[in-house]
């Protein structure tokens, strides 16, 4: 694996691509099946040839949103190319970010476990009050 010469540069380019795509997608893609898209991250290969763009979508299934965005990636690539003004602009590959949904599910499990713990603790404390 080739390491980038300037690791900070890759991070700056990833951040810029993420910001630019967040603005471009609602303007450039007029497909109502897409829903509301949020760009959650971007990772670039060390040679800057490819960028994996992570996203979430409301109002659309992950499969449909991924297909629409990957189909529109050549148009988005052209717009990014004009905006970035760097020698090598990475090809865009969109991938649905399941971490947000997983985080939400984890939060629900924690809440449920806390509620169950509180229910177990309440009867025990009520029993102690009765015996005193």
Q: N-to-C SSE series?
A: HEEHEH
State the strand order across the main sheet: 1-2-3
Main beta-sheet annotation: 3 strands, mixed
Instruction: Tell me the total number of β-strands.
Output: 3
**Helicity level:** 55-70%
The N- and C-terminal alpha carbons lie at a distance of: 70 Å
Mean pLDDT: 85
- Number of helix segments? 3
Q: Spans with pLDDT under 50 lasting ≥5 residues?
A: none
β-strand amount: 15-25%
**Strand pairing plus helix content: what structural class?**
alpha+beta
- What integer value in Å does the Rg equal? 23 Å
Give the helix/strand layout.
Layout (H helix, E strand, L loop, with lengths): L6 H22 L7 E9 L5 E9 L3 H23 L6 E6 L2 H33 L1
Parallel strand pairs: 2-3
Antiparallel strand pairs: 1-2
Helix pairs in contact: 1-2
């Amino acid at each position: 694996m080739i390491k980038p010469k300037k690791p900070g540069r890759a991070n700056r380019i990833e951040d810029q691509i993420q910001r630019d795509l967040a603005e471009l997608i609602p303007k450039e893609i007029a497909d109502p099946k897409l829903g509301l898209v949020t760009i959650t991250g971007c990772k670039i290969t060390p040679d800057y040839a490819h960028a994996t763009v992570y996203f979430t979508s409301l109002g659309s299934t992950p499969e449909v949103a991924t297909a629409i965005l990957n189909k529109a990636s050549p148009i988005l690539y052209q717009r990014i190319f004009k905006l970035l003004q760097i020698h090598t602009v990475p090809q865009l590959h969109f991938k649905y970010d399941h971490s947000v949904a997983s985080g939400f599910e984890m939060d629900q499990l924690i809440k449920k476990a806390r509620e169950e713990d509180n229910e177990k603790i309440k009867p025990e404390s009520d029993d102690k009050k009765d015996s005193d």
